[in-house]
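Budget justification aside, the reviewers requested a transparent look at the raw inputs and outputs of the sequence design task funded under Objective 1. We therefore reproduce one unedited record. The lines immediately below are the structure tokens for a 387-residue chain.
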């Protein structure tokens, strides 16, 4: 006997088949989603590992110490030294006034400023630098003891107090401008014989320790960087610092220590900004002006004067007067030497003729000379000639 066809069974089987296919599809989608999530997480983690250090380094800038940068020792209340400490750099105290232990301590370079304008300026700069270091971000939280660690450039913040036991290595990765900033919310303490080692280009100029309370460096320890402590700083026997020991309000205590300010190269970033400058240009045009000039020249005319010199020749006529003795009337001539004569003798006549000739010649000479000296033209001339 054949089974009869039941529509409800056919519908039920189809529904179960569809549910089974749907379940398989959902499970496949969930598996694919899980694989994608794991892959994406791995990629993101790898990117963070590759780029995390570079981003932290790029965001870190050196702390500007300003007027405090030349100080090896700076304190607020007192500076006390025991033993043969050597300080290379300035020593400053403000507002306190007591510095003791020098000698036997020696300041090999720099000046000492006690409660003066320079020390006050250095303390003001320290306050600004402290706030700068404390506020830099982003910071990586560290463990409480950095001994045995190797760190790359960046900003590090301790959970509370910070200790260094053993060796802390700061690796600059070959960057001479690598910066390390340590933010310590409480105290900083280094163990005896501990050390901070700088390698691969790191300079002590770019290592900063911002300490909220006080710092203590252990016996014979070696430290690098600038300590900016809010309260006080104590260096136990034989501790050496390549950097600065700067305390805002408290004391700095030394005991046969070496503290030297590092030689820092000035790192200058040059930004080229296109600047358009309008320069006023003044053009000078040479102008030639012709000014008519009237010059009055005094002229002196010299009229040649001809002077005629008339040479007048004066002729002196010697007149010979012959005295003829009077002969009385009626007296007869008696001859030569007689007293009576009938008329003049020939000798007398010759003498009178000679006199007359001389007088006539003289008159004619005078007349001719007068004519030569008178003008030739005009009626007046003729008159004068006639006269």
């Amino acid at each position: 006997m054949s089974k009869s066809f039941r529509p409800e069974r056919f519908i039920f089987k189809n529904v179960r088949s569809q549910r089974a296919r749907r379940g398989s599809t959902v499970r496949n989608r969930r598996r694919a989603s899980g694989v994608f999530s794991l892959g994406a997480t791995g990629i993101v983690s790898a990117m963070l590992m590759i780029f995390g250090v570079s981003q932290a380094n790029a965001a870190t800038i050196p702390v500007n110490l300003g007027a405090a940068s030349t100080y090896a020792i700076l304190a607020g209340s007192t500076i006390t030294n025991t033993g043969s400490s050597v300080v290379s750099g300035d020593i400053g105290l403000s507002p306190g006034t007591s510095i003791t232990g020098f000698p036997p301590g020696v300041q090999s370079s720099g000046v000492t400023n006690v409660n003066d304008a320079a020390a006050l300026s250095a303390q003001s700069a320290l306050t600004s630098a402290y706030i700068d270091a404390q506020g830099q971000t982003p910071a990586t939280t560290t463990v409480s003891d950095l001994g045995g660690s190797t760190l790359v450039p960046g900003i590090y913040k301790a959970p509370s107090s910070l200790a260094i036991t053993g060796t802390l290595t700061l690796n600059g990765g070959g960057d001479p401008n690598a910066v390390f900033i340590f933010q310590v919310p409480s105290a900083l303490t280094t163990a005896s014989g501990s050390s901070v080692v700088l390698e691969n280009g790191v300079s002590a100029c770019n290592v900063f320790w911002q300490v909220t309370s006080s710092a203590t460096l252990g016996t014979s320890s070696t430290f690098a960087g600038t300590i900016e402590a809010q309260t006080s700083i104590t260096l136990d026997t034989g501790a050496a610092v390549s950097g600065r020991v700067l305390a805002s309000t408290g004391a700095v205590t030394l005991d046969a220590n070496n503290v030297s300010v590092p030689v820092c190269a000035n790192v200058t970033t040059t930004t080229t900004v296109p600047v358009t400058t309008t320069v006023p240009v003044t053009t000078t045009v040479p102008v030639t002006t012709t000014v008519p000039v009237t010059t009055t020249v005094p002229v002196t005319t010299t009229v040649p004067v001809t002077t005629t010199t008339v040479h007048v020749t004066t002729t002196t006529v010697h007149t010979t007067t012959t005295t003829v003795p009077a002969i009385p009337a009626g007296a007869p001539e008696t001859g030569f030497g007689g007293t009576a004569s009938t008329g003049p003798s020939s000798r007398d006549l010759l003498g009178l003729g000679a006199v007359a000739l001389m007088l006539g010649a003289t008159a004619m000479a005078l007349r001719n000379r007068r004519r030569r000296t008178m003008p030739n033209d005009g009626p007046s001339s003729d008159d004068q000639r006639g006269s």
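The longest strand covers residues 222-229. The longest helix spans residues 7-59. Computational costs for records of this kind are itemized in the attached budget.
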